[in-house]
Amino acid sequence: MPTIWIIVFILQWIVLVFLICIMAGVLRYLGSIQDKIEEVIPRSSRFVRGEYATEFSLPDLSGHVIASKSLLKKEQELLLLFLSTKCDSCQALLGTLAHLVSTYQNVTIKHSIALVVAGELDSVANMAQKYLRQLECIHILVDQAGIVIQNYGISGTPFGIVLNSHGRVMRQMLGPTLNWLELVLGIHATSLAEDEEKEKSQNTISTQFTAGI
After folding, report:
1. Residue 142 belongs to a domain with what CATH number?
2. % residues pLDDT > 70 (the chain)
3. Which of 53, 127, 23 minimizes the C-alpha distance to 83?
4. What is the pLDDT of residue 135?
5. Which residues contact 93 (CB under 8 A, 6 or more apart)?
6. Do the domain assignments include residue 33?
């Protein structure tokens, strides 16, 4: 009998390793598909993946000039969102972004977020006040004449670009969706960890309640 159990145990481990190898292969395959999709889909900017994005400097809402390279931090990705005060989709995106950042505050640890907004200063300030008044972690840069958006070759707003810590383009999308924002900000992993903590907390409370009875 002990020999049979040893054989069963070994077979279980072999099956487990086999399944892990299959999952790793599937993930690599999905990653290659995503790379091919990004190559096929029009990028709607003048940059290709892996290329250095052009540096720029713009004033924030207080008038202080911020250089884009100062937003690049070690071991952090930079999410640049290009918006316009005259764009309804941009305002909807801001509402979504504000919800994600306020709900999953850990995203700002691994990511810097900056908005490049085309429009008059007052209009940009009103937009920020409406959607981002309590989110000081998000940098807001005013591109009044739309020069940076033009120089980046962006065909429309809203538009999102993700840069690595060296300033290379990693991802970009015209009309960023909720799923895209969750992907680039790592929301799924964060939310999973938080759900596990909530479940542990609920189990602890349930156990204490049962013990009290």
Report:
1. 3.40.30.10
2. 78
3. 127
4. 79
5. 81, 83, 158, 176
6. no
Order the strands of the 77-84 sheet from edge to edge.
138-142, 111-118, 77-84, 159-163, 169-174
Task: Judge whether 32 lies within some domain.
Answer: no
Domain span at 96: 57-192
State how far the Cα of 81 lies from the Cα of 26, in Å rounded to an integer.
Answer: 31
Q: Per-residue DSSP letters for the chain?
A: -HHHHHHHHHHHHHHHHHHHHHHHHHHHHHHHHHHHHHHHS--SSS--TTSBPPP-EEEBTTS-EEEGGGG--TT-EEEEEEEETT-HHHHHHHHHHHHHHHH-TTHHHHEEEEEEEES-HHHHHHHHHHH-TT-TTEEEEE-TT-HHHHHTT--SSSEEEEE-TTSBEEEEEES--HHHHHHHHTHHHHHHHHHHHHHHHHHHHHHHHHHH-
Flag whether 127 is in a domain: yes
Model confidence over 1-46: pLDDT tens digits?
A: 567 777 777 888 888 888 888 887 777 776 665 555 454 444 568 8
